[in-house]
Specification:
Two copies of one chain form a homodimer.
Chain A: H1 4-11, H2 15-22, H3 30-43, H4 49-56, E1 61-66, H5 77-92, E2 96-99, H6 112-118, E3 123-127, H7 134-140, E4 146-149, E5 157-161, H8 163-176, E6 182-186, H9 191-206, E7 216-218, H10 224-236, E8 243-245, H11 249-261, E9 271-273, H12 279-283, E10 290-292, H13 295-311, E11 320-323, E12 326-328
Parallel strand pairs in A: 1-2, 1-3, 3-4, 4-5, 5-11, 6-7, 6-8, 8-9
Antiparallel strand pairs in A: 10-12
Helix pairs in contact in A: 1-2, 1-3, 2-3, 5-13, 8-9, 10-11
Chain B binds a DNA duplex through residues 1, 3-5, 13-20, 23, 25-29, 32, 47-48, 50-57.
DNA sequence: ACAAATTGCTTAATCGTTTTCGTGTTTTAA
DNA sequence: TTAAAACACGAAAACGATTAAGCAATTTGT
């Protein structure tokens, strides 16, 4: 690997001069600069980020913690899109993306924080994890700039999708389509689930809907088997709902299958709605009624906020940025009455 | 940040001793080691990967180049799964994953190779890109260990899914279900497309099927609009096919919609088959007949091969590892006759 | 009991940069 | 003409680790 030393030798100048020339400092003569740049190119010089980092204590790389229980966040449509947008934005601004090692089985493994320190990440983004995990807590409480997605911590900036408005809009839409018997299979307990659920109750109350407790059930996110089972239970009720809201689009398919297995039609016999707006939702027939999350904006805002936090630690304020989704009407909720 | 220097000061030993103790060299006394480890923990010592890299010229990080034309590989279900598996395997073995910056719009951007050198990646994995791109070529021809996925280069190791067998198995399955009029909408030109297409022709020939040229059409991968249009054309033929194979599962939905739009039923009136085995294929009704790619194995093999290449450059041979997929029968191909 | 081997630690060089503080030369101002 | 300012560059320390070589002190073999 050719280094500045090699260039300095060829050019007959000091290493310091080479460094300054390549960084375009203004105390180097224009022709000297040009010559050095020329030689650097000819020799195939490649800067060494490790050396630069060692000196400047900046890596221009961001740690990403995107883990799911079983699944990695990568195979999670919603988070993959958020991450993609985050990555684009970060790269535009000169930062690289590295995953925080989530392999918990190695003997000499480091905690998330240790790993982040080891790699000297300039900042870290956290999403899609078990926020109860003490290791996550440790990371969040460290002095590393952190932005979290979809989970609020004390004193940390967060980008959250507006689950309250999302569910509220969805329920309103369903209500306006004429439904009065609306069931909600919500996801496993989490901050997101909490806000959606309480929004559901509140909205129903505002609309004057009486929701029997049987109508509110739980199933893990992105799990079709459990939503299938829960849907069966709903359909078995003496007074079954006319519309079922699912934890997310994917798990909605579990419910759809249960409904079809009964020989019922969607949306004629039973209406369904999902959440997230994954790509397939538009391409499925009937198109899924759902809340389309603005994943692009979520990722972008997270990156912008994090980089701002890194580059302007004094002036950047800790805030909660709320990103709203949108009702995608689709065709899976029928107009009734 | 506390460094080895701080530890050495507290322990009253030299920095070298600290380094050796923490790396468990055997020329340091057991009690000294223990003491140093203890103090390191107490002080909250964190190793500095940049310094280590500078000295050892090893980063234990792997570059990942996963870009699509418009989409990043991240939002591409197939590649997301491959990447996920790659990541897991690499992390188990102590390597971190960093994306090779694919943002082509920055003024002072580096080429893929420059970026890889800058970050001193120990190795690089390439998938899902435009392999014609001169920058990709440059990277592939460099002295950095490289593994490619689904594309063969001279003198480089590759992990490929067995497209020849995949299409062959699929056509055989369809044939055995009684179909004789099989159309194939293949993806845009690429090595993968080539091998699938020639396998299609060969298999049909072996089975004695006459495939009219009208039956073979092209549409971009993962594009439902174009498959919709091509499907319409197929259905408009005087002698339309009884089964249509699509570039992939996702684009298959475009065809499905076109078929439904005609008021036809699947698979009763027209049969369809996809490729990839994305998650939704199992959960859709009717379940999609498809070739399930072994993404887990693809990612794992790629990581293993790459790390082997890095750690045992002499003894590791350049090879092409072929990973076979499997027919998932599903319900979208009807039994006829 | 004495040379040889082992143990345990230190010294010092090095990796490739950045950056502060000089220093000599040239230009500008008065 | 001369002092001050501007310009161009260099010397050297520092960032935080690794590692070869060396050196006492201790243990081992005979």
């Amino acid at each position: 690997m050719v280094s500045m030393k090699d260039i300095s030798a060829v050019c007959g100048v000091s290493i310091a001069t080479v460094s300054k020339a390549l960084n375009d400092h203004r105390d180097i003569g224009e022709e000297t600069k040009e010559h050095i740049r020329q030689v650097a190119k000819e020799l195939g010089y490649s800067p060494n980020s490790a050396a630069k980092t060692l000196k400047t204590n900046r890596t221009y790389s961001l740690g990403v913690l995107f883990v799911d229980d079983e699944q990695s966040g990568l195979t999670h449509d919603y988070f993959a899109h958020v991450l993609d947008s985050f990555k684009r934005t970060a790269e535009e601004r000169g930062y690289d993306i590295t995953f925080i090692n989530s392999c918990k089985t190695r003997p000499q493994r480091m905690s998330y924080l240790e790993h982040s320190r080891y790699r000297r990440f300039d900042g870290v983004v956290i999403a899609c994890v078990d926020f109860e995990d003490p290791e996550v807590e440790e990371l969040v409480r460290s002095n590393i700039p952190v932005v979290t997605i979809d989970h609020l911590f004390n004193n940390r900036s967060t980008i959250v999708s507006d689950n309250v408005k999302g569910i509220s809009d969805l329920v309103h839409y369903i209500y306006e389509m004429g439904h009065r018997k609306i069931a909600y299979i919500h996801g496993a307990d989490s901050a997101v689930t909490q806000s959606r659920l309480s929004s559901f109750y509140r909205t129903c109350e505002e609309l004057g809907l009486e929701i029997p407790s049987d109508y509110v059930r739980e199933a893990p996110y992105r799990n079709t088997k459990d939503t299938y089972a829960e849907t069966v239970k709903l359909l078995d009720l003496k007074d079954p709902p006319t519309c079922i809201i699912y934890p997310d689009d994917f798990s909605c398919f579990g419910g759809i299958n249960a409904i079809y297995a009964r020989g019922l039609k969607i949306p004629d016999d039973v209406s369904v709605a999902g959440y997230d707006g994954i790509r397939i939702a538009r391409h499925y027939r009937p198109q899924l009624t759902t809340i389309v999350q603005d994943t692009k904006r979520l990722g972008r805002e997270a990156a912008i906020k994090l980089i701002d936090l890194i580059e302007n630690p004094k002036t950047t304020l800790t805030e909660q940025i709320v990103v709203t989704g949108e009702v995608f009407p689709g065709e899976s909720v029928a107009k009734i009455n």
